[in-house]
Amino acid sequence: MAGATGFEEFSDRLRRDGVLVRSRTSTQDPDEVTGYAVALRATGTDAAEGAPPVWFGGGKLAPDLTFPQLRARWCRGPAGRPQAARPGGTARDGLDLAPAERQALWVAAGQATGRADEQLRAAAFGEPGSRAVAEAAAVAASEVLAAVGRLVERSGAGPVHRAAEAYDRAARGLRRRAPVPIASARKTRQAAGGLRGMRFVRRADTGQLLQLVEQLSRLSLALAVLREQQSRSAQAAAARRAAELLTAERPDAATPRTPPCKG
Length: 263
Hints:
Layout: H1 7-16, E1 19-25, E2 33-40, H2 44-48, E3 56-57, H3 58-61, H4 67-73, E4 84-85, E5 91-92, H5 99-124, H6 131-152, H7 159-171, H8 183-198, H9 206-229, H10 233-248
Antiparallel strand pairs: 1-2, 2-3, 4-5
Helix pairs in contact: 5-6, 5-8, 5-9, 6-7, 6-8, 6-9, 7-10, 9-10
């Protein structure tokens, strides 16, 4: 699910949606999760007759829901802490990033969002071969918005979090099919991972943050137009709701999170 940073949060979100989750652990290390399966609770006649749930491994649902794919997306380091990607490719904690490194991460997120916006608008105008690229771009961009929500809001109930949830509903394909693998979508997910790794917003980040929020608002409107052309009215409404939340409720970058203490 968009926005989850680890298996615990991922499984908690599924359970809140009424999905059963069980993990598979390593035979050598019982504390290490190596896989998972999900099932729906029995209802109606099945529940009355005590029918057991039917379990599916993540890979049976979609190629990007296998545990290795999820673990890679969560960008976890060896110590289980979120990591930020340095321009040179080395992972570092958000507290240790130099201003130039933080700037590079903001720029990468902005470029990824702008590229996704262009891809959605191209599909809305009916450019040949653009639809599959746009669908992949829409899903990947949900991770950028979710990452912004975690940076600027302490709780999971703020306006940016609500915008991320609305956008995610609008971005997902019918029947939750996995999007076609696209190189630009992978870069967008990498950019989202960089934002997650920063862990907090500095005062010097204010301009980049507000610019990115404006880009995400425009992206949401582009997705709404595409969904309207596809006659997917519920998803179009969700995308417009995301844009409204991002426009009306700008995150207060002037009073960022207090950086977590070292050690």
